Amino acid sequence: MEAYLGIDVGSVTTKFAVLNDADELLAHLYLPTQGKPIEMVQYGLSQIKQKLPRNIIVAGVATTGSARYLAGVIVGADLVKNEITSHAVGALHYFPQAQTVIEIGGQDSKLIIIRDGIVTDFGMNTVCAAGTGSFLDHQASRLNMSIQALSQKALESRKPVHIAGRCTVFAESDMIHKQQMGHRTEDILYGLCQALVRNYLHNVSLGKDIQPPIIFQGGVAFNRGIVKALQEELNNEVIVPPHHEVMGAIGAALLVHEEVINTQNKSRFKGFDTALKKVKIDDNCR
């Protein structure tokens, strides 16, 4: 059985997706990068191998994400693609009529405008953490709750509190101030979700023509409070696809499948045993 492997290595999470020859998802992984992309790529290879049939033949490998070139060298990638293209291809695979893709990750966020199946515009935010998942994680930790509990609690809000969300420092100070004033936790948390969405739309989508269908991808799409806040702010349905957290990796796998069909080249994949090898980075590459 031939298969195609996509690897999306971000600053916060590392994702793997394996597709069969019919572009159906065979296996996927969603792992914390923990500041160790080399080790996590190797660990992911060892784990994804266990999820696959023994007779699998990897006919193509593609990498994407902020550490895509490093990951490409480690695994012997046949294709290295940027996150915009990978996420757009992943979204269009499941929703061919998609016109807008929102992707919010741990450290950055993206907006992709698609018309007639082609990316026509995009925006990225790689500077301010106030519109990303890391800020939510930090606030959940400060409140001594899981990110899942934060999401569920936010949905209980009936009178959300306005949080100054243009900056992580100001937002945290404002949350503490609102707590000291006696506002309910759920109202503060949903106010935080609204603030993150406002910040995202102000920094990433300013001047962009957001049209439905709107697809929401990335790890933050697990947070139902953010989904609700997006729908309210955009006054439109926001679709969270299955396996939204690994959509970049799925897109990469789809792209390398197409590349293999077009070129008929043999894959340069170094094999799953790469997970057991010691990787040395040349000082000239640092």
Describe the structure.
By secondary structure, the chain is of the alpha/beta class. The protein folds into two domains: 2-85 and 246-285, Nucleotidyltransferase, domain 5; 97-240, ATPase, nucleotide binding domain (Nucleotidyltransferase, domain 5, 2-Layer Sandwich), CATH 3.30.420. Helix content is 39%, strand content 21%. A five-stranded mixed sheet has the order 3-2-1-4-5, with helices on both faces. A five-stranded mixed sheet has the order 8-7-6-9-10. The radius of gyration is 20 Å and the shape is globular. The mean pLDDT is 90.
Task: Looking at this protein, list some descriptive labels.
286 residues; alpha/beta; Nucleotidyltransferase, domain 5; five-stranded mixed sheet; 10 strands
Describe, in short, the structure shown.
This protein has 286 residues and is an alpha/beta fold. Helix content is 39%, strand content 21%. The strands form 2 sheets. Strands 3-2-1-4-5 form a 5-stranded mixed sheet, with helices on both faces. It has a 5-stranded mixed sheet with strand order 8-7-6-9-10.
